[in-house]
Amino acid sequence: MLGPLLIGTYIFVLSMFVGFDVIGKVAPTLHNAVSAGMSAVGGIALLGGFYALARSTDGALGFMPLAAVALAAASVVAGLVLASRLLPASKKREPT
Predict the structure, then answer these.
(1) With 0-12 CB in 10 A as exposed, 13-18 as middle and 19+ as buried, what is 85?
(2) Which candidate, 74, 67, 35, 34, places its Cα nearest to that of 52?
(3) CA distance 69 to 42
(4) What local confidence, expressed as pLDDT, does residue 14 receive?
């Protein structure tokens, strides 16, 4: 029982380090495109979390799919809020 949890923890920590490294190297002009792409990835993670939540039978590890769903939902909502704030800033202004 400890094996899958330990492997899942290793994968999670490794993916955090890789994600921080990749996002840290993105040019500031591309952050809008990257945030839109990350919202799409968050949506895929949300679907995967729902699938894992539906298939989980182990009570001890049942919190992990629930945490995945909660974090992916927060990521998608944050991406949509960020996009809604950035869209008015990118509209062309009429010359006066």
Answers:
(1) exposed
(2) 67
(3) 10
(4) 92
Q: Would the pTM count as exceeding 0.85?
A: no
pLDDT of 92? 67
Measured between alpha carbons, how far apart are the two ends of the chain, in Å?
A: 68
Q: Are 15 and 38 in contact (CB under 8 A)?
A: no
Q: How far apart are CA 87 and CA 68, in angstroms?
A: 28
Residue 6 has pLDDT above 80, yes or no: yes
Task: Determine the pLDDT at residue 31.
Answer: 67
How far, in whole angstroms, is CA 67 from its chain's centroid?
12
Q: Which pair of tokens denotes residue 30?
A: 């591309």
Query: What are the Cα distances from residue 54, in Å, to 24, 34, 48, 66?
Result: 34, 30, 10, 10
d(CA 88, CA 29): 17
